[in-house]
Design a protein that fits this description.
Blueprint: H1 2-20, H2 24-29, H3 38-74, H4 78-137, H5 145-167, H6 171-222, H7 232-251, H8 258-315, H9 322-350, H10 356-415, H11 422-442, H12 449-487, H13 495-509, H14 513-524, H15 531-536
Helix pairs in contact: 1-3, 1-4, 3-4, 4-5, 4-6, 5-6, 6-7, 6-8, 7-8, 8-9, 8-10, 9-10, 10-11, 10-12, 11-12, 12-13, 12-14, 13-14
């Protein structure tokens, strides 16, 4: 513990000596090259006194503390020694921070003097050029000229304050005056370029646009346009009030955001132009469109009457659902409503009861409703046509099913099989009955196509399944007969073969063709494993 404490004392001693040996006086001495008066002289004395206090008072005191710490360690008073080590470390750290601040202040003063010396000529030239530029543009600065002159006077005042502060040795204060003058010159130079453009918009361009809109409104109202619903006058008055505030801001050169405000005003004025132009365009649109709509009403009325007539004709032969008749009733009512609505639109346009923009919107909505109604009429016509089309399709399907039944009977007759098993006869009978039910339903008047469609689909399913079943049965019978015939050559070789073929013949005569084929195959495959493939080769494709 004692060794560690001694080691820490050595470190702090080295640190103290390092501070003591630094060339701080030389750094402070750089200030002597400046004009030693006023602020510079005061700061020099302050920094010199701070350093003297560190060297002559604080560091010697730290030296004594380090001796005390070694004494505490020698007497095994380690806790006391450690506490003093921590306090000494903090004092040295504080001295480092104090020296750092001192040097930054010294360097700041010296640099301020150097920067002031190097920049003052540039600023003076910029000031002269600014004065010249304002003199040339005085005629375009309007109400802002007084504010520009005040800013120029302010720059001149700052330069005079700079000269006085420099003469007094107050380089930091002089620096502040010079920087403020630089910033003010830059701001005025920017304003000098932008201000005339903003002033032209505020005093000439935008007021001219507002006047043009007002004049246009007067002419349109004389022509009978209803512009009051657009609230154009109140919107213009709001913009004029905003323009007054912008002018007031420009007088004191408060130009921040003015360009955006003027752009917003221009956009809003453009919207007013668009509103008036669209109103004029809407009048032409409405006047031409109303003629077209009147023709559409006549055409639509003819289509509604034609639909009603076709429905009456269809009802003579077909069953038309209640829902479909209600739909046609609604179509007729909608056609009547649209006709009345068109009268209202025409009256509003003829007597200029509202804006043409709003009438145009109503016309477009009316057109959409009319298009929708026309689509519904076409849909109903297609539904009526579909009734007849479905009837023809049902008749074609029934005719095709009858042909399938005939083909099935021919297949049975040509096969020369002994007969059909009971389940096949029942299935064939069921197919013929289903076809008969569909045929009878199709002959009823009025024709209920929904019921017809169900029965035809049912008959189609049963007839086709029956056809497949009969074809399969005949095929099994033919195969059974061929296998029995082929197996006769092996009958004498084995009593088992003879018995199997006998069983197959018995089942064949009982119309059990699949069982007969199975028995014959079991009897013959012992001597001819590929007998089924062989006899299939004898069958016609």
């Amino acid at each position: 513990m004692r060794k560690r404490i001694y080691k820490e004392v050595d470190r702090l001693e080295d640190w103290k000596n390092g501070i003591l040996n630094r060339d701080i006086p030389d750094e402070i001495g750089k200030v002597k090259h400046l004009h030693m008066s006023g602020q510079t002289e005061e700061k020099f004395e302050t920094w010199k006194n701070e350093w003297d206090e560190i060297v002559g008072g604080i560091l010697p005191d730290i030296e004594e503390k380090l001796f005390d710490i070694e004494d505490f360690a020698a007497k095994n008073r380690f806790n006391k020694a450690k506490q003093q080590l921590e306090l000494t470390d903090k004092r040295l750290t504080s001295i480092e921070e104090q020296i750092k601040t001192l040097l930054e202040d010294v360097h700041g003063l010296v640099q301020s003097e150097e920067q002031n010396r190097s920049e003052i000529d540039v600023v003076r030239v910029a000031y002269k050029e600014l004065c010249s530029a304002i003199t040339k543009k005085r005629g375009s600065l309007g109400p802002g000229l007084v504010a520009f002159d005040k800013d120029v006077d302010k720059v001149n005042q700052l330069l005079e304050q700079f000269d006085q502060a420099t003469a007094d040795g107050s380089y930091l204060s002089a620096r502040e005056f010079l920087v403020e003058a630089q910033e003010l010159i830059a701001r005025v130079e920017t304003l000098l370029d932008e201000y005339p453009k903003l002033l032209v918009q505020v005093e000439t361009k935008i007021p001219a646009e507002i006047k043009e809109i007002r004049d246009g409104m007067v002419e349109m109202e004389k022509a009978g346009y209803q512009l009051e619903p657009f609230s154009l006058l109140s919107r213009i008055e709001v913009m004029e009030q905003e323009l007054v505030k912008i002018k007031e801001a420009l007088v004191v050169l408060d130009c921040d955001g003015v360009e955006d405000q003027l752009l917003d005003l221009s956009n809003r004025l453009e919207q007013l132009y668009d509103t008036l132009e669209y109103e004029v365009e809407s009048k032409q649109y409405v006047q031409s469109k109303l003629v077209e709509l009147a023709n559409q009403v006549e055409e639509n009325q003819e289509k509604v009457e034609q639909l009603a007539s076709e429905t009456v004709d269809v009802q003579k032969s077909y069953f038309v659902s209640k829902e479909q008749l209600n739909a046609q009733k609604q179509i007729k009512e909608q056609a009547h409503d649209l006709t009345n609505q068109l009268f209202v639109l025409s009256d509003a346009a003829d007597h200029q009861k509202q804006t043409y923009t709003s009438i145009r919107e109503m016309v477009d909505l009316w057109q959409n409703d009319m298009n929708k109604l026309a689509g519904e009429i076409e849909s109903e016509k297609e539904t009526l046509f579909a009734l007849r089309e479905d009837e023809l399709k049902a008749k074609e399907t029934i005719q095709s099913l009858k042909q399938i039944i005939l083909e099935t009977h021919r297949t049975i007759k040509k096969s020369n099989i002994p007969g059909l098993p009971e389940h096949a006869l029942l299935q064939l009978e069921s197919a013929e009955e289903a076809l008969m039910r569909a045929t009878e339903q199709l002959s009823e008047i009025p024709l209920e196509l929904g019921r017809v469609t169900v029965l035809v689909q049912e008959a189609e399913s049963i007839v086709k399944k029956n056809q497949e079943s009969v074809f399969h049965l005949v095929e099994q019978a033919d195969l059974a007969e061929l296998v029995i015939q082929y197996g006769n050559r092996f009958r004498s070789r084995s009593q088992e073969v003879a018995n199997g073929l006998l069983e197959a013949e018995l089942r064949f005569r009982q119309y059990e063709y699949e069982e007969a084929l199975e028995c014959a195959l079991q009897a013959v495959e012992k001597y001819e494993p590929n007998v089924l493939e062989i006899v299939k080769g004898y069958m016609p494709v």
